[in-house]
């Protein structure tokens, strides 16, 4: 199943919160949704969950519009908002059972389903606890269990790791991997970019409502070649080598870091090869010549400005 977003826009008075977003999600994929605060991530997720109506554009499930048919979204999409359950006078069981009733699931099946969901999200041991007595991590599990009641094909998650302790974040990460193996497509917004790199197969980066990059983690990190950092370990005088390097084309922001010389290199792989040949032909000896591996954090910092609308 494919969830497609095409030319999606959302306006609030004079502010265009979302600007012609285009991307698609597939079953089994975990896609990270990244952007500064106020970039339009929550608005986009709410439109995809049929809570907000777009100003223009389309959202389709296998070619069927969920804008003209929002019940399709509520049948095939689960939504975990950035707010946690607030029904403090309900127990964990009562809360999940209430939403199962809202989906008109018959009693016999409902009992089995609620039990299985609590077992899957590790909530059985606290089923009789009031929501008011739960930690943030446990409340997040309750939200995820609620989003799975109707066995959706896609799950949209708005900052599910925010405020969780390290153990709860690790447990959430493992839960997402299990859901992915079950064939569910997941779109997860988060500011914890190092963790997204570990679990996501693709990433969508937006700022001020507009898409900056979308693709696999490998594509995004490998294709961002305009800000690559080159690291060289020379033999001999670091000062003399630095003075030689700083005069070569494409070398910017050179620093000495321990036994290494590092600098931004504005060039392609072919340009890097030419640079290496120039170093070797000058009879200078080096024992290391490599690019610092790009990660999602460095790409994000390179292409965003931190501006809000």
Helix content: 25-40%
Write down the CATH topology of the largest domain.
Rossmann fold
- Which word captures the global form? elongated
The SSE string, one letter per element, is EEEHEEHEHHHEHEHEEHEHEEHEH
Written account of the structure:
By secondary structure, the chain is of the alpha/beta class. It has two domains: 2-216, 3-Layer(aba) Sandwich (Rossmann fold), CATH 3.40.50.300; 228-293, Alpha-Beta Plaits. The protein is 36% helix and 29% strand. It contains eleven helices and 14 strands. The chain has helices at residues 41-48, 70-76, 92-102, 107-120, 136-147, 166-181, 193-199, 217-223, 238-245, 269-281, 296-303; strands at 2-12, 15-26, 30-34, 56-61, 64-65, 77-80, 154-158, 185-189, 202-207, 210-216, 228-234, 251-257, 260-265, 286-291. The strands form three sheets. The chain has a six-stranded mixed β-sheet, sandwiched between helices. A four-stranded antiparallel β-sheet has the order 2-1-4-5, with helices on one face. It has a four-stranded antiparallel β-sheet with strand order 12-13-11-14, covered by helices on one side. Helix 6 links the parallel strand 7 (154-158) and strand 8 (185-189). Helix 3 packs across helix 4. It is elongated. The mean pLDDT is 90.
